[in-house]
Amino acid sequence: MRPVEIACDESGSEGENLLGGETDVFAHAGVRMSWPAAAACVREIRARIGSPAEEYKANHLLRAKHRRVLEWLLAPDGPLAGRGHVHLTDKTFFAVRAAVTLLAEDGTDAMARALHRAGPAAFGAARWEYFLTAFTSVLRLKPRRGVTTSPEEFFALVGELARVPGEAGELVGLFLDGADRVAAYRERLASDPGLVPVLDPLVPAVIHTVRHWSTAGTPVAVVHDEQLALTPERVLQLKATLGHRLAGVRFVDSRTDARVQIADFLAGVARRIASDELNGRGDPGLSTLLRSFVDEDSVWDGPGR
């Protein structure tokens, strides 16, 4: 069966830096459009916006004066209807889910959601953020910024929070036996350059993108904007995970491929709309338009769940 090409780009990528970075949402978009259709869509966006900028980005569409252009792009009868897909990641919830999955012996999504919702109130917002930042630190062999925590210090903190009465304390208490799993993970990370870090949302998002577009059994050939995190070793991991669904991965400069430019638009506006919604300043109209593009298995525990 001949593969279908899906053009992809992301917005909000900061690698394993999930907390305290520039963005709180990661969005990965995949677009199924022909070259002529994508080029025509880019021309129409330029004509409607009328900016002299040589390269258009999502922030052009997100300006209040261009609201109608954005609504046209995301509309049920617009150029992306049935052609676009977005996988969203709430970075904080992603960190909580990673902690539950790695540290609790039988961690589940339900446990992660419960802890994500109860943690800030039970421990205090600042202490809760420090705990999650310490967790992300201990899973990185060379933390680049923020809190630097040893495994011993982290599990001492786990012990403190586990003594807090209530559901959140009980859930964190399940992490007390996770030291061996953390040590084993750090050993694998040091010895295997192809290992996909559990804190990087990019590879899981690509997996969901491919699965979405291959539901009918058609293999997917990914055309992705240049992305250093998708190393040759990690592309091999993607192929091992997805099997026949993934026909290949090819990298391009988004400025040379109109399809990837459209994916860049979609990822950028999706990240901003989702971030605004997550932080209580959402736009109901735009959130409704975006919803039809969002993967139902997005890593999301905010509004709309």
Element pattern in H and E: EEHHHEHHHHHHHEHEHH
Strand content: 5-15%
The secondary structure category is: alpha/beta
| Cα radius of gyration in angstroms | 20 Å
Give the helix proportion (percent range).
40-55%
**Please, how many helices?**
13
The stretches of 5 or more residues where confidence is low (pLDDT under 50) are none
Give the averaged pLDDT, no decimals. 92
Total DSSP E strands: 5
What is the straight-line distance between the termini? 37 Å
Shape: globular
Order of strands in the sheet with most strands: 3-2-1-4-5
* Biggest sheet architecture: 5 strands, mixed
Describe the protein's architecture and organization.
With 305 residues, the chain is α/β, with parallel strands linked by helices. The two termini are 37 Å apart. The model has no long low-confidence stretch (mean pLDDT 92). The chain has 13 helices and five strands. Helix content is 50%, strand content 11%. Helix 11 links the parallel strand 4 and strand 5. It has a five-stranded mixed β-sheet.
Task: Compile the SSE list and pairings.
Elements: E1 4-11, E2 25-31, H1 35-49, H2 58-61, H3 67-74, E3 84-90, H4 91-103, H5 109-123, H6 125-138, H7 151-162, H8 167-173, H9 179-191, H10 202-213, E4 220-225, H11 232-242, E5 246-252, H12 258-278, H13 284-291
Parallel strand pairs: 1-4, 4-5
Antiparallel strand pairs: 1-2, 2-3
